[in-house]
Amino acid sequence: MTTAGVWHPVALSASIEPGSSAGTHIDGKEFVVWRDNSGAPHMWEDRCPHRGMKLSFGFVRGDHIACLYHGWQYDTAGQCRYIPAHPELDVPGSIRVPVFQTVEVAGMIWVATEPTESAPPAPQETGETVSVRSVFFGAAIDAVLAAIETTPPRPFSGEAAASVLRQIDGRLYALTVGSDTLLLGLHSLSGERTALHVVIAGPAARYSGKGQAHFLAWTAELRHRIETQPAAAVAA
Amino acid sequence: MAGIVLYNYELDENCYKVRLALSMLGLKWEPIAVNAFPGNEQTTPPFLAMNPLGTLPILKDGDLTLFGAEAILAHLARSNDPTDKWLPAEGADFAGVMQWLVFSAGALAVAGEARRSSLFDTPGDGEALQASAGKLLRIMDDHMIARGYEGLDWFAAGHPTIADIALFPAFALSRDFGIDHDEYAGLRRWGRRVRSLPGFVTMPGIPDYY
Ligand code: FES
Predict the structure, then answer these.
(1) pLDDT (mean) for A126-147
(2) Once rounded to an integer, what is the mean pLDDT over residues A69-83?
(3) How many CA atoms lie within 13 A of A59 on its CB side?
(4) What is the mean pLDDT of residues A106-132?
(5) Which residues in B have their CB inside 8 Å of a CB on A?
(6) Which CATH class is domain A129-235?
(7) Positive or negative, the Cα torsion across B148, A18, A112, A95?
(8) What are the residues of chain A with a beta carbon less than 8 Å away from any beta carbon of chain B?
(9) Helix (H, G, I), strand (E, B) or coil at A120
(10) Distances (CA, A) of A220 to A156, A224, A225, B143
(11) Which of B146, B180, B189 sits opposite A17 (nearest CB)?
């Protein structure tokens, strides 16, 4: 079963700390990704029902998000629970932010943009992952995939080796070089902007520190290539 | 006038660097409000006599008159922080602080230009300024992501320094010039740590969360 078009990677798990939020886009639509203080991830429409301001500008308090503008607070179900200007009010159930299903797989937060029974992507390489980074490109997903194939990383350990890029499921890819495997989440911010979420499949004992830095340098090289070469040359 | 006096404009990000440092160092000081907008008072002769560049901030500390936010931070730290944490005395920590102070006062000034162009409609190509500022924030983000691999939370040392103070406003105020924090995970993480430092203060454009 393919998950394309339904499940999207929106952030590295490590990039959304408990009690924090960040704005993001999927295909041009605005969302807020946040983690409550207990560590559970959430993704909502980035729009406060009060006056439509961005909830990602607000802040997380325990298991609520408070809007920056007039302090309306929403619980983890997106239900408004508190309106500071009317502290006694029993807030009507209709004041609610649309929320989306999230899971954490492969060191990334995945979101279903519509209600679905379909399972989120399941990498065969389950087990420990070590995050590298999310990197952003002014290019569509296809151009980014093409650039990854023409500018692969060198293995962290061992001799230079050919790389193999393989689609695991939907937006999740595995890139193997030598004995190293990266898991890549491709995230379409809009038709011309893509985020690439990069983690190493493997134990922290082996990769943390120098291994992370090795693949960070690759993301910078990839970004440089996409930014300095005309799209046609990258795709060729 | 004895003591520390800051010629200050509330909306100026360079004045904010100094206000942050004064507050984090726990110093007593006195502001003198300058009508920078729309008055441009800092470019009139009495101010040019103190700073021929016609910019803010200007600091007086006893007999000393100083301009340039980064130089002022260095002076405040060196003369008021006996632990030498805010401005390490030597080695890689000192070198790192210098590198990022120069970055802040030099290349990163474009973020201030982008902000002024969008808030006050000063001359300049707003879009080009925004793009250059975005690239500089990206350099900072790349650096903080790499620091994270070493378990380090701060730009130049294992603890906060005046480099963190100097760099904070450009990131914290980036929405003023149309750059959101979405794509800067390393800076979001660092920014939250800066906000939790004792003595942290905000300015207009930086929300006071608590
Ligand atoms: S817009 Fe969110 S509380 Fe008013």
Answers:
(1) 95
(2) 96
(3) 13
(4) 83
(5) 142, 145-146, 149-150, 175, 180-183, 185-186, 188-189, 192, 207, 209
(6) alpha beta
(7) negative
(8) 11-12, 15, 17, 20, 22-25, 56-57, 59, 68, 133-134, 136, 195, 208-209, 212-213, 216, 220
(9) coil
(10) 16, 6, 9, 11
(11) B189
Average pLDDT over residues A196-213: 97
Structural domains in chain B, CATH included, are 4-80 (3.40.30.10), 91-195 (1.20.1050.10)
Q: What pLDDT does residue A1 have?
A: 42
Helix (H, G, I), strand (E, B) or coil at B153: coil
Ordered by start, the domain boundaries in chain A are: 7-112, 129-235
> Residue A153 has what DSSP assignment?
P
Is a pLDDT exceeding 50 seen at residue A63?
yes
Q: What ipTM score was computed for the predicted complex, to two decimals?
A: 0.93
**Is 90 exceeded by the pLDDT of residue A3?**
no
Positive or negative CA dihedral for B129, B135, B136, B137? positive
A7-112 is a CATH 2.102.10.10 domain = yes
Are the Cβ atoms of B149 and A195 closer than 8 angstroms? no
Report residue B201: phi and psi, to 5°.
-130, 155
Neighboring chain A residues of B185 at a CB cutoff of 8 Å: 11-12, 15, 22, 133-134
Listed as ranges, residues in chain B with pLDDT below 70 are: 1-2, 210
